[in-house]
Amino acid sequence: MSRRLRIDVFFDFICPWCLIGKRQLEHAQVQFRSRHPDVQITTVWHGVQLLPQLPVQGEPFADFYRKRLGNADAVAMRQAQVQQAAATVGLSIDLSRIATMPNTADAHRLFERASTLGNVAQREMLLERLFAAYFKKGEDLGCGETLLAIARDCGIDVNDVADALLGDATPFEGAPGASSGVPSFQFDRRMTVVGAQPAESLLAAMSEALKESDRERQTA
Prior knowledge:
- The structure is a single chain.
- Helix 1 packs across helix 7 (199-219) and helix 4 runs antiparallel to helix 5.
- By secondary structure, the protein is α+β, with helices and mostly antiparallel strands.
- The strands form two sheets. It has a four-stranded mixed sheet with strand order 2-1-5-6. A two-stranded antiparallel sheet has the order 3-4.
- The radius of gyration is 18 Å and the shape is globular.
- The longest helix has 21 residues, at 199-219.
- Helix content is 47%, strand content 14%.
- The chain has a single domain (3-219), classed as Glutaredoxin.
- The protein has helices spanning 16-35, 61-69, 72-88, 105-115, 120-135, 144-153, 199-219; strands spanning 3-11, 39-47, 59-60, 100-101, 184-187, 191-194.
């Protein structure tokens, strides 16, 4: 009988640590598969809207962070920290191109709808493309036209997803009981790791979850 490992990831598109954490998870999965080639991994992504209070048009990015962190020096320090962490996992994040802190409700609704369509490759492409749109191209993820253009680029029929976009800042209702701390990684609903932890930490949690699953199966 083949062994399985389910990974649930809780994230928001505007959180750079979620993208960094995605890369760390990918590195951990490569190592895990080399050690356990018989284990089938299923990864499920759950959207968490961190800032449901944002207006539908979002807020100016620079103003948002100045208000949140207090002054320009604090913003520069935080952004340098993010870019340094991104570089360690091979990511290039261009925060200078981001004009708007968007309301991500419709981005999450789009991804949730696309996730029900059954094409794993398109779903992964859409996830990557939405992150890249924000952190590399500075595109507005609160704009319906932008979201549909991204979906179209991923080979998704926009007629299948257009009605998921409400365009009115109605908060996105994600997975019930989802942690507000993102990124959050749950392994077989046994082990949870919060934050963009190193690949080694994620690998350890994956391995421990698998051991627990094996122990349960042996004693059943």
